Amino acid sequence: MKKLIYIFVLILPLAVAAQKKEAKVAFSGYKGNYIFNLFKPASAAHPDGEVVGFRLDRKLATEANWQTIQTFASPSNYNELASTIEDGKRKAYEYNAENAYTINDVWPVYQKTFRYDSLSVYLTQQHLAIGFKVLLVDTTANLSNHYQYRVVQLKRDGSEYGKYVSQPVSQNLGALAINKPKAHKREVMGGVFRLSFAAKAGAEVPQALLIRRKAEGDKDFKRIELLYSIEQLRDSIFYSITDDNARADALYQYTVTPVNRFGGGAKVVSDTLSVNSISQKMLIPKAFVAVTDSVKKQINLSWGFIKPELISMVKIYRSESYEEGYSYLTSTNKAFFEDKSIIPGKKYYYYLIISDQLGRSSERSTKVYALIQNAEKPNAPLYVEVMKTERGNKISWQDYNLESRGYKIFRTNQLDGELVPIDTFVYLDRKLEGKYSFIDTTKNSGGLTGYAVVSETMSNVQSGFSKTVYLKEEAKTVNLSAPLLLDFQKDKKSVRIFWQQNARNTNVSGFNVYRKTGEKQYIKINKALVNSDRTTFTDSLTVNGQDLYYKITSVSISGKESEASNEIQADVLTMVYPPSSVKCSFNADKSAVELFWQPSQSEISGYEIYRFTRGSEPVKIGSSKGQANFVDRGFEKDKINYYYVISLAHNGNTSVPSNQTFLSLK
């Protein structure tokens, strides 16, 4: 558990004229109300002048009469101190035997003078402050009530000497003005859980954490004392905890509640973070099946897990081939999925990737497959056309059937003559987006030639004939010209280029795209011909700072390419590094703040310097054209001033902020 250091300020008895003034010396806590005894130690054996003891009184804030709840004196011998320290261990909000001071640490110091002058470092720990009666604990208080407390000095004859009264205290009055911590990060290393929560800074900074944990099978969350830290960075507060005492086969849930140093002031509870260190093999489904539903024309997938409570998300992948071609289909947190985007007659293969509550992914599950047949007759292809090309007669059509496997082409040499099938079966290429074509290379002696197309489903059911189209004369050959590259878009994983086709090109079958990296040669990057109705192409690659250039060519029906288009360069952003080791100090007369830093490792045009104070937004206060220093004469003298520096590249790009540095006149 984190060792929290607090400085207890010990003061002399209050003057008589100030005895009625209320002091902020009482605080709500986890185990009751905690009250500071601000008087010097006193007992019958070691009095403070006439004072030999003390009395703690309590009353409701709305009442006038006080009730004595404790009469006590400072420990005067070893046995008394040992007893009160043991009582302090039970009443302290945070006690950790590994780093706690013991009676053998403090008694040799205390017995010399029976004063607190040399005990300040020891009294920072709550169990010792309680043991020495510096910190009093009212465990009988109803924390929802508003109480006031009075500490009174007692003389030997029982009469009162000095006294002071606390301000009203309760759970509600002491609630911390903070924001709800949100789940930030979780890690598992060697069976040790490291969790963190983050929140926007509020009006107060919490001094401690109340950590609750619920293990698998527990009914409620229970408090657990773990190593933790509280860190404020700019306008955010980060709460981090470490748990090295967790079972490897269990799922745990954690919450944190920011509190004051006594465990009180709790107002908000954080998000719940779940974590486990279970092997990823436990995430693989123990059963995974695919069942066809021919009535609804869908494939029903279902699965099960050994520990379903560990599962966060199931990702489903599908392919039309067992070995390859799998692509992401969907995600679900259920134990089943209905795949309604299937084509009857086509076999589909599936596997699962599982993510647990930590976001870890499992190995690939076993593969399953299913097939649905459909006896319904499809519609005939539409918009059939034919034209003469250098390679032969090109027949093109459109098809809006969702279940097509491919097409058969029929030919005749006379008007309304008998249609005879061409031996070639044209398989569906879904990348052509509904427009298909076939080139008949048969040499004709001239005259009239007609064509019709029939579609065939995955269940081997054929449509009727399409409209028959005829070719009466040979089409003229048109020379191809290159398209015009217009623009590009890019992100970290791809570059997308755009072009415009020349309107005079009437026999274009598609396009080829070429790419050059740096000073290398151009290479063709499209595996299949880019369809002729497309005016864009996405180049999927990792953009890592190299210079990229593109050209494009038109391709005719006969396979001839045009000349290359104009060249376009895809400018790629390069990383700009911030300066390092930013430091600041006052000049000799403290009239200005001098900043220094190590230069950026990038080629830059200069730096921008920013300043802010707590609770305010950073403001640019100046710039430097390359010098690694800056002088600020406009800093706020009554506040802590924070600074950071940003590098500027020649192309206008900026780095992330450097490290922060700060200082104050106080």
Structure write-up:
There is one protein chain. The protein is mainly β. 5% of the residues lie in helices and 42% in strands. The protein starts with 21 loop residues before the first strand and ends with a strand. Strands 1-8-7-4-5 form a 5-stranded mixed sheet, with no helix packed on it. Strands 33, 34, 35, 37 and 38 form a 5-stranded antiparallel sheet that branches.
Determine Rg (CA atoms, Å): 40 Å
- Assembly type of the chains comes to single chain
Total count of helical runs of at least 4 residues = 3
Query: What overall form do the CA principal axes indicate?
Result: elongated
Based on helices, strands and strand pairing, what is the structural class?
A: mainly beta
Walk across the major sheet and give the strand order.
1-8-7-4-5
Biggest pleated sheet: 5 strands, mixed
- Can you count the beta strands? 45
**Average pLDDT metric:** 86
Tell me the fraction of residues in β-strands, as a range: 35-45%
* Helix fraction by DSSP (H/I, runs of at least 4): under 10%
Uncertain runs are 1-20
First-last Cα distance? 32 Å
List keywords for this structure.
disordered N terminus; 3 helices; mainly beta; five-stranded mixed β-sheet; 5% helix
Itemize the secondary structure elements and their pairings.
Blueprint: E1 22-23, E2 26-28, E3 33-36, E4 51-60, E5 67-72, H1 78-91, H2 103-113, H3 126-131, E6 135-138, E7 147-155, E8 160-166, E9 182-189, E10 192-200, E11 208-215, E12 222-223, E13 227-233, E14 236-243, E15 252-259, E16 273-275, E17 287-293, E18 298-304, E19 311-319, E20 327-332, E21 336-339, E22 347-356, E23 368-371, E24 382-388, E25 393-398, E26 404-412, E27 420-427, E28 435-440, E29 449-457, E30 469-471, E31 484-490, E32 494-500, E33 508-517, E34 523-524, E35 530-531, E36 536-540, E37 548-556, E38 568-570, E39 580-586, E40 593-598, E41 604-612, E42 619-624, E43 629-632, E44 641-649, E45 661-663
Parallel strand pairs: 1-8
Antiparallel strand pairs: 2-3, 3-6, 4-5, 4-7, 7-8, 9-10, 10-14, 11-12, 11-15, 13-14, 15-16, 17-18, 18-21, 19-20, 19-22, 22-23, 24-25, 25-28, 26-27, 26-29, 29-30, 31-32, 32-36, 33-34, 33-35, 33-37, 37-38, 39-40, 40-43, 41-42, 41-44, 44-45
